[in-house]
Amino acid sequence: MLIPYDVRSNIQMLVDLLNTAPGISSADDRLASPENLSRFVRDHDFSGSVDATTLDVRVASVLRERFRVVLGEDVREVVAAVNLTFDEIRVQPRLVEHDHWGWHLHAAGDRSPLGERMASDIALVLTDLIRTGDLERLRACAGDDCSAALADFTRNHSKRFCDVRSCANRTHLAASRARRASGD
């Protein structure tokens, strides 16, 4: 499947949002302040105002917890989370073109609060993945002691490890040490 730039970007934003939770890449909540959230959305090319408020931080935290369901096996839980999100936001869909993005869909208005714009982007990208049967592109890292999320953009859906904690390197190194220890 050819994944358009805006879809790929929003998938990565969702994965990165999930990975900001305490205990994933840091002991701390990486989105605990408006400044951290503003930096996060700026790094993810959000258009419009990126000045986060404490309410936006709370919304981001709710979205992060709500959408951890994408790492499970039940598509119905993801659909329920998407529909709940659509119920909570003022959807104002329109095609837009800005920066280097080309034509794409925005579901929240340009003046909508930052948390609402994040929610709409997540709900839209998950809608795309569910409709195309590609929700399995989002999953948990296969590392033994890792709970990070990952986005698999490979053609054959073969990515197994996150980019957060060097899990692939640690797993391969452990396997190599085990082979040497057993004399193989």
UniProtKB/TrEMBL annotation:
Pfam families, alphabetized: ABATE (PF07336), zf-CGNR (PF11706)
Superkingdom per UniProt: Bacteria
Classification via InterPro entries: ABATE (IPR010852), ABATE_dom_sf (IPR023286), Znf_CGNR (IPR021005)
UniProt cross-references to SUPFAM superfamilies, sorted A to Z: Jann2411-like
Residue span(s) of domain Zinc finger CGNR: 137-180
UniProt-listed PANTHER family: BLL6575 PROTEIN (PTHR35525:SF3)
Protein known as: Zinc finger CGNR domain-containing protein
Organism: Brevibacterium linens
